[in-house]
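User: For my dataset I need records formatted as: sequence, then structure tokens, nothing else. Please produce one.
Assistant:
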Amino acid sequence: MLSAGRPVLFAADDLASFKGERIMVAWKDCREARRAVVDAMPFLRNAKEVTVFNAAEEGTLVARDGAADVVRFLMRHGVKARSQLLESEGSSVGGSIIAGADRIGADLIVAGGYGHSRFREWAFGGATRSLLGSGSFHRLLSN
């Protein structure tokens, strides 16, 4: 994925389930996530519901502000969106993303991917690795 130079859409185990009606944006204020949002714009504009989830890694207030900024950006581009703080509930960020997507019934997760070396991602887990291993959701990842 690092060398793709394009967004990559990973299909869920059930390809026929894709409708693009409920989309989860897994937000972290980084280049990869910003690119993923722009790359996913055609899907986001056609969705009935877009939820921007931000993990409170940097602190609750910072996470809320970051998600609110993304929602404002999306609304300026004709996307109806809302934000929600992603609660870790004792699991990894990747596990929290998958649980949040399941909770809202998302049929597409939009996220930045592989923001650091493949070795570091492999060695320490990482949200990207969790997302790649989840065949329950369609995933659009950009780097």
